[in-house]
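FORM 7B: Structural annotation worksheet

SECTION A. Query
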Amino acid sequence: MAIPVRNTGWAALAFAGLLALSACGWQPLYGKVDSTGGNAAPQLATVHILPIADRTGQNLYNELRDRMNPSGSPSNPHYDLVINLQERSTQLLILQDQTASRTDLTLTATFQLYQRGNAKPVFQGSSRATTSYDLLDDEFATIQSTNDARRRGALTLADDIATQLAVFLSQPSGG
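SECTION B. Predicted structure
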């Protein structure tokens, strides 16, 4: 009777990868690290997000707040985040009767992070998300499809903006 032998090559490879990451200065974005920085969560919780216009802006605001400060608005904010949101639709899949059956929705957010009391931003960036939706025969279904595409786009933007801010604020010179 032969005893099966497990292949442990992948475990050794994973361990070597972790060693290589730690050797090049890699550190977790949200984990505990030394006093030189690295934990973005407390810094993100001090960012006050200014209201964003329109329903899509409200979705983006709510998603960002959930990622950056799940307990609500900061009681003692150190930063203000200003976001400008733009939306563009491009019709695709033109049918023989010259009507579109699919649309790409592109949301673009430009943002500036201001330290309280300063007129010049300490960090600025942009993010873009493109989602698609179908144009259906039923008008209500098309409205729902459009709203869902906007919600998905806002979710993608929130992930990207929160990550960009976390990387900036976790750096010793950032926060």
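SECTION C. Observations
Residues 33-167 form a domain with the Double Stranded RNA Binding Domain fold (CATH 3.30.160.150). The radius of gyration is 22 Å.

SECTION D. Sign-off
Analyst initials: ____
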